[in-house]
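hey
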């Protein structure tokens, strides 16, 4: 399976390592041409405003919107999915506060427990139209709508690969 990772900024290497441990072939996506022949795409965390600017400069914004690919966005990647209109929910940036409010926890996910790292994480709101895959207390923190999946946390910062495996099953 050939999975692209948006390689502009952010936690790229950690996602690559998780996906490779699951046997995926990795393509670093820097230009629109890199999307060709992919089975899925991961958009990592980072700084969404910077990522948006560079994606537009490299012609990736429209290309990804039109790609029809299964996409998994983590944190800033999730913010971008909502902004691109690829998932029908609202996102509040930095809703948990700054770097010092970053935290690690464990969540229920598909019948198991997964570690989750929240770093200046967004809050997902107006989630009526998406399927909620995981909650932190009351808050939806991992969601899916068709072939699009988003988490407000970083699973790639922990050793567990269950969330990446779930995404590969969607591809
Ligand atoms: N706070 C960042 C943003 O708004 C996201 C942080 C992250 O991806 N870990 O873009």
């Amino acid at each position: 399976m050939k999975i692209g990772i948006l390689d502009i900024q952010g936690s790229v290497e950690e996602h690559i390592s998780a996906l490779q441990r699951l046997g995926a072939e990795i393509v670093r996506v820097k230009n629109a041409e890199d999307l060709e022949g992919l089975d899925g795409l991961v958009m990592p965390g980072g700084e969404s405003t910077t990522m948006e600017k560079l994606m537009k400069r490299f012609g990736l914004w429209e290309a990804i919107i039109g790609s029809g690919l299964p996409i998994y966005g983590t944190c800033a990647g999730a913010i971008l999915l909502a902004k691109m209109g690829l998932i029908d929910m609202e996102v509040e940036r930095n809703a948990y506060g700054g770097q010092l409010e970053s935290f690690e926890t464990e969540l229920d996910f598909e019948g198991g427990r997964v570690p989750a790292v929240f770093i200046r994480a967004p809050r997902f709101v107006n989630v009526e139209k998406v399927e909620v895959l995981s909650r932190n207390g009351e808050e939806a923190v991992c969601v899916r709508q068709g072939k699009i999946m988003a988490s407000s946390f970083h699973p790639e910062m922990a050793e567990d690969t269950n969330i990446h495996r779930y995404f590969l099953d969607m591809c």
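The domain at 2-170 is CATH 3.40.50.880 (Rossmann fold). Residues 45-48, 75-76, 79, 93-94, 119-120 surround glutamine (CB under 6 Å).
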